[in-house]
Amino acid sequence: MNKFFLTVLALFFTLIANSQNIYQLDRDAGYRDLKLGATVSSLFGKIEYVEPTSSGGYKYTVTDNSYLSIFGVKMDEVFVFAYDGNVTGIYGVKRSLPGATLDSSFHERIQKGLTQKYGKPMYDMTNEHSNPPKIGVAWRTSNKEANVCTMYFKDKDILVLTVFWGMF
Predict the structure, then answer these.
(1) Which residues contact 4 (CB under 8 A, 6 or more apart)?
(2) Which residues pair with residue 148 across a beta bridge?
(3) In the chain, is it the N or the C terminus that has fewer CB atoms within a 10 Å radius of its CB?
(4) CA-wise closest residue to 139 among 163, 125, 123
């Protein structure tokens, strides 16, 4: 009887520890200390101002190379968007060379990392008829989103992988 009870208890705690849900996105949107809602001043030394945005905010590029890896995928660029001194978006980009392909495991690794963090994706963003055609998934709460998307730009013959966290 004690063995059965301990086994059930261990299974219960394992399930609780491994279960992630979308509400984690509200508490922990981003990676490392690049988080939605963080103050821009807390990121000095890691980001550099680029330009104002059309919405009245500011765009920064991540200059600390250790922040270019997201779920083990080395991105070409990571941008931080801010409004009123707070981070409102994080955008990672990885591009293929013209005519080349991107390793599909890049998309899979980021999607797996986001799934482990936030649970099963809520939305399928795949649309092969859009311009550009894309495959991807997203997680959303009432005011935050995370997504991973791969798009094909036919005119430039490149594939672009993006990962995004944002507030709306």
Answers:
(1) none
(2) 137, 163
(3) N
(4) 123
- Residue 144: CB atoms within 10 A of its CB come to 21
* Residue with tokens 């991105």, as numbered in its chain: 75
The strand pairing partners of 151, in sequence order, are 134, 160
3-state secondary structure the chain: CHHHHHHHHHHHHHHHHHCCCCHHHHHCCEECCEECCCEHHHHECCEEEEEECCCCCEEEEECCHHHCEECCEECCEEEEEEECCEEEEEEEEEECCCCCCCCHHHHHHHHHHHHHHHCCCCEECCECCCCCCEEEEEEECCCEEEEEEEEEECCCCEEEEEEEEEEC
β partners of residue 59: 51, 81
pLDDT in tens, 100-147: 888 989 999 999 999 999 999 999 999 989 999 999 999 999 999 999
pTM: 0.84
What is the 3-state secondary structure of 82-113?
EECCEEEEEEEEEECCCCCCCCHHHHHHHHHH
- Secondary structure class of 23 (helix, strand, coil): helix
